Structure formats: structure tokens, C-alpha cells
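Residues pack. One example:


***
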Amino acid sequence: MLQEERLFRAVVDALTEDRLTLPTLPEVAMRVSQATQDENVTASRLAAEIGRDPAIAVRLLRVANSSALSGGRRIDNLQQAVTRLGMGLVRSLVTGLALEQLFFSRSPMLRQRLRSTWTQSLEVAALAQVLASHCTMLRPELAMLAGLTHEIGSLPIIRVIENLGETVDDAAVLDRCLRSLQPRVGRLVLQAWDFHEDLVEVPSRWVDFGREHDGPPDYVDVVTVAALQSHPHRQGRLAGIDRSRVPAFARLDINPEVDVFELDGVQQDFQDQYAALSA
């Protein structure tokens, strides 16, 4: 317990004393985000910005040529990819693809935990995108981005642990620290990145399984349902949640006792979106 208390206190102290170092949004994501805020931006200009990061450019082309989006017609340049995908989806995809490079640590234990978080985030993102499309009027590309960043708070917490200079050998200790602290920290990260206000609340609210609100479903609802239904969470730490007591299911008009992958078209759409994000 001594190590757990020390890790927890180090993160809390960094938060309360405003010493928590938040990760920086990758440059390519910032450039694309700024460009898409210009209503007169062209596909050519956006392609030029993306092309300054060859690794992201290659992956975006793979996504555009994935079975979910290609329609059987292959393209080989970024301008065509931007035109095919649309500005909104390009912005979310570039941000998501760029975020993956942040999920790294020199420590084997911490690196494994970050990679696991990223893999789970991909699954939640793909399902959130599908659920938004099938069950809501929300923008699927923003639902995808909400899924990719719903546990983004793990990044600065793990950086604090790294800076302590001690080895963390107990995965359970690490998981308890992350579960307790990352909702609040994740909100701070997305605020610092100037994310859409509807997405900023996702890291801190998706785990509020009894959350009530008026009106139609929002991105928190979509991520909550996607997390509870996605494979790693159904088999892991969220397996014991009583979904019949989670109002988000009702707002999406989904029976909590039903596996969403059995709903018409969801399984195939999920597989397509997951393959595209993993391209």
C-alpha cells in the first residue's frame, strides 16, 4: 500500500499545485485543426498540411482505401483522400492517428499499460462511431474522437509516475491509481487541447453510469455504452456493471440486455471502422 499511496499523492500534489505536465497535441493535429476552422479551406491546402507528416499521410491514405470507405475504388493522393473522407472526419482521424505516438513509455510495465489503453480506446472509438451513426443524430466522427480520448488522462499520470524514478511492478496498484485519477486529469487534457466542449466532459463523465440528463443522447452517453459493450471492457473491470441501471442505454434506445453487436449492421460496421482506425 505504501507505493500506491506514494503514487496517488504524487499525482494529487501535481494537480493541486498546478505542476501537472499535460501532453502536447501533436503538431500535425494542431495544424489540421486550425486549417479546418477556416470555412474557405480547400482539400488541396489540407492535404498539404497533412503531407508534412509522412507517417500520418500514409496512414490516412490507408484509411481512405479501407473497405469501409473505398467503395472498391483505390486512390493514391492525399487531396483525393481528403475529398473522400470529408473535412470533419479528416480532422478527427488525423488527431486520433497522431495521438497514438503519445502512448509510449520506456518502462515495460507502463508501456504495456499504455498500449492496452490505446487498444481498448480503438475498440471504444470504433463502436462509438457506429452507435452514433445508428442510434443518434450526433456526428460519428466526433463520437470516434470521444472514444479515442476517453482515457487520455492516463498519459500525464504515467508521466508523473515515470518522473518519480521508481519501478512499478504491481499492475493492480497502477490500475487503481489510473481509475481514480484519470477522469479529472483527462478533462484537463482536452481543455488544454481546446477540444469541442461536448467532448471535454467525456473523460470525466463516461464512468458516471447513473448519469441523468434531459434531451437527446450526447457523446458521453455514446462512449458509456460503447465502453460497456466493447470486448475488453465486457471481459474486464466493467464486466460487473449492471447495465439495466445505466440510463445511457435508454437514451440510445438500446436494450441493455442485448449485445449491440447483434443489432442489424453493427457488427460489420464495427469491424470496418476498427480496421480503418487500425490501418
About this structure: The first helix runs from residue 2 to 16.
